[in-house]
Design goal:
Layout (H helix, E strand, L loop, with lengths): L5 E7 L2 H9 L2 E5 L11 E6 L9 E15 H4 L12 E7 L3 E8 L9 E4 H6 L9 H15 L5 E3 L1 H4 L7 E6 L2 E6 L7 E3 L8 H15 L10
Helix pairs in contact: 4-6
Length: 225
């Protein structure tokens, strides 16, 4: 498992589908519902109200092993009269299911379809909001913008750093110390990340970080791309 491994969270609505996930190790996704793709190293499952005490939380995940495009009638041959019997579905295959302990709950009762996240977020998350917080999203955008400038940073997600009062954070190791940028910055030693989609927010933030990197002697040998 690597921090950047992708995790796809899908919904299980029927007990029969969970039985197949447990015994046959596959999950189906209608072709038209995969607009963002199914590129993930892991799949996790959010359980609907049909599951009693499992309702409204992510309890299981597994390593993805394969992907096929097949018709529904081939996946479920005992439902030939289903109105979508000839529709195309992705058959997402995976290994043994593993327990997510503690589970990831849906405290805000969000409507859940598919969630795309990363392993480091997933492993730290306690609530669905932790999988796609605004702070994490902005830090992710800054991270990739810096990467395009040849600067590699370390990401620490909101749910991981919140207990320390830091928020989502980027750390860049320089020749003369470190540059820290954080959504929870509270003093002059850290660059404040504004968590904004406003005009120029991303560019201004990246410019401030690059300036700080230069003041700290630039990147050490071996840290440049």
């Amino acid at each position: 498992m690597y921090p950047e491994d992708r995790v796809l969270v899908g919904v299980i609505n029927r007990k029969r589908d969970f039985d197949m996930a447990q015994t046959q190790h596959w999950y189906r996704v209608p072709q038209g519902q995969a607009a963002q793709g199914l590129y993930a190293e892991y799949i996790a499952f959010f359980f609907s109200r049909a599951f009693g005490e499992l309702n409204g939380a992510i309890h299981y995940y597994a390593r993805r092993t394969g992907l096929e495009l097949v018709r529904r009638r081939d996946l479920l041959p005992d439902e030939p009269a289903h109105p979508r019997a000839d529709a195309l579905y992705y058959k997402l295959q995976f290994g043994e299911l593993r327990r997510k302990d503690p589970p990831i709950v849906n405290a805000d009762r969000r409507v859940v379809t598919f969630i795309h996240t990363t392993w480091d977020r997933f492993s730290q998350a306690r609530d669905l909001a932790d999988l796609y917080s605004d702070a994490d999203a902005f830090v992710d955008r800054v991270f990739h913008a810096l990467e395009r400038q040849g600067v590699r940073a370390e990401r620490r997600w909101d749910t991981e750093s919140r207990a320390e009062g830091k928020g989502a954070t980027l750390v860049i190791r320089c020749a003369d110390g470190m540059v820290v940028a954080s959504t929870g910055a509270r003093d002059e030693r850290a660059i404040a990340l504004p968590v904004s989609d406003g005009p120029g927010a991303l560019q201004e933030t990246v410019a401030a970080i690059l300036d700080a990197v230069r003041k700290h002697g630039g990147l050490p040998v071996g840290r440049c791309r």
